Amino acid sequence: MDAAALWQQPVTYGAVGATQAPDLMSFPPRGYRPTERRARIGHGRARWEHAALEVMTWCVQRRAGIRVTPLEAPAEATDAPYRPIAFQPDGTPIPPDGSQGEVAYAPDGGALLGPGDTVLLGFPWFPLRLPARVVYVIDEPLRKGFAYGTLPGHPESGEAAFAVEYRDDDSVWLIQRSFSRPSAWIYWVGYPVLRFLQEVYQSRYERSLAGPIDDEDSTGPAA
Asked: Model confidence over 142-162: pLDDT tens digits?
């Protein structure tokens, strides 16, 4: 499927944004398996700024060995930006306000990821590149992150969210939440392998953010 055709495709599941629901682990979308991991990745302002920037520029995935290829948005997508769903603390959906979002930039001038961004994810163990789309972004003073949803051609159907939190005790945490299931019968055969690989990459994400901070990476995310 070419880039133009992929932009016309919706995500392959209905509960868009459900990784934000407080009760996800108890009441996931029907037929989907939920996961949640919380890991302390360090402490201090420098660690927080580094981790937030890494998450918002796909660096977490790249450092875990995934090839991330952003697809250029067609004119019709930029003329009518994607409006992500949001939730109240109790899980009640918040209707989009219709405002136009602005592109945010990292200190090096590169654009931070945003709602509606579509990418191809390449894994060394799978011959095809897997399409995904950013369905919402978290941009709070002490919490940064995003979630992507699967598109047609992905072996799984569902959503994965990554959030970095800077807490009052000066600790920095990575929270990963997801819900998924195989997207076709052929992938059910290898479902245990998919689950194992999911855990492997979740661990890699944690290690990538807990590693040494390069001087050039510690300037923090754009406001």
From this structure: 999 999 999 998 989 999 999
DSSP class per residue in 107-173: TTSPBPP-TT-EEEEE-TT-SSPEEEEEEEEEEETTEEEEEEEE-TT-SEEEEEEEEEEE-TTSEEE
Q: Which domain holds residue 117?
A: 39-88+106-213
Please check whether residue 221 lies inside any domain of the structure: no
> Looking at the domain assignment, is residue 177 inside a domain?
yes
132 found inside a domain: yes
Instruction: Report the mean per-residue pLDDT for the chain.
Output: 83
What is the spatial distance between Cα 219 and Cα 8, in angstroms, rounded to a whole number? 37
Residue 147 in any domain: the answer is: yes
Mean pLDDT of the 105-109 span:
61
Are β-strands 86-87 and 93-94 bridged in parallel, bridged antiparallel, or unpaired?
antiparallel
Domain count along the chain:
1
Sheet holding 171-182, edge to edge: 33-43, 171-182, 156-166, 143-150, 130-140, 118-122, 67-70
Secondary structure class of 68 (helix, strand, coil): strand
- The structure tokens listed for 132 are 């995904």
Q: CATH number of the domain that 187 lies in?
A: 3.30.530
Residue 212: exposure state from Cβ atoms within 10 A (0-12, 13-18, ≥19):
exposed
